[in-house]
Amino acid sequence: MTQATVAPAETFQLQPYTDQCRVIAEEGAHAIIGVSPGNSYFSARRLNDLARWAAVRFDQADFVYTDVHVADMYQALGYTPEHARQKAVKNVRGVRAKVSTACADADPGGNRLTWHPMSAFQGNAAYQRLHHEVVHAVETDPAVRETCDALTGIFLAGKLGTDGQPTDEQRQVCRDYVCAEVPLFIDTPAILGVPSSLNCYHQALPLADLLYARGYGLRASRNQGHGILTPAEGEVR
């Protein structure tokens, strides 16, 4: 992983994951920023800051918020089907409002920033192909399955606590949730038709070790990058 870089007066610190990711970041053609509903990190202020940062740093940026498998996740965590659906609708509606407002405020003309729900990609041929590859890899490649399970473990530990033991249903729902997001870490350029793209997230993920490893298997495309994006020192977190 390359060392972090911070441009003067930036509100965020971007740490490209590899040297090639750094090249993609410096090209500044496109960034994709994933937003999870119900995650307190993505406050209205944080999203406003992210939108302003992205509008300055990249030619284009897309914010993507998760709206698939959300109700299933709540139900697997113990909510009744009706309560799970209501909670999912409320959280997705809230994050959509925050993301759309942040993009409109930072880019009033709509020339640089765009936002999408994850479900919008389900009719995209490139996304469908990549999603199929991800699901197949989880089922057939032990390394991919182990990495996916590590991600689900991190997520469920935050929901169940360190002493909680996830059920098979909870693990499967988390796998479905993760698999829906992975195509955007593999080849956003193919999905959105951009020359190169940097997928930005605020935490290091086990997934990156796999996607940017040498050799064959489930790997990020040459023009797909990844960066850890965190508030710069002194910024409110």
Quick structural gist:
With 237 residues, the chain is of the alpha/beta class.
Distance between the termini: 23 Å
Mind telling me the CATH class? Alpha Beta
Q: Helix and strand succession? A: EHEHEHHEHHHHHEHE
| Number of H/I helices | 10
Write out key terms for the chains shown:
237 residues, alpha/beta, Rossmann fold, six-stranded mixed beta sheet, 10 helices, 15% strand, globular
Describe the protein.
The protein is of the alpha/beta class. The chain has a single domain (12-231), classed as Rossmann fold (3-Layer(aba) Sandwich), CATH 3.40.50.11710. It is built from ten helices and six strands; from the N terminus they run E-H-E-H-E-H-H-E-H-H-H-H-H-E-H-E. The chain has helices spanning 19-27, 44-57, 70-76, 81-106, 125-140, 142-160, 168-181, 183-186, 188-192, 206-211; strands spanning 12-16, 30-35, 60-65, 113-117, 197-201, 224-231. A six-stranded mixed β-sheet has the order 1-6-5-2-3-4. Strand 2, helix 2 (44-57) and strand 3 (60-65) form a beta-alpha-beta unit. Helix 2 (44-57) crosses helix 4 (81-106), helix 5 (125-140) crosses helix 6 and helix 6 (142-160) packs across helix 7 (168-181). The protein is globular. The two termini are 23 Å apart. The model is unreliable at 4-9 (pLDDT under 50).
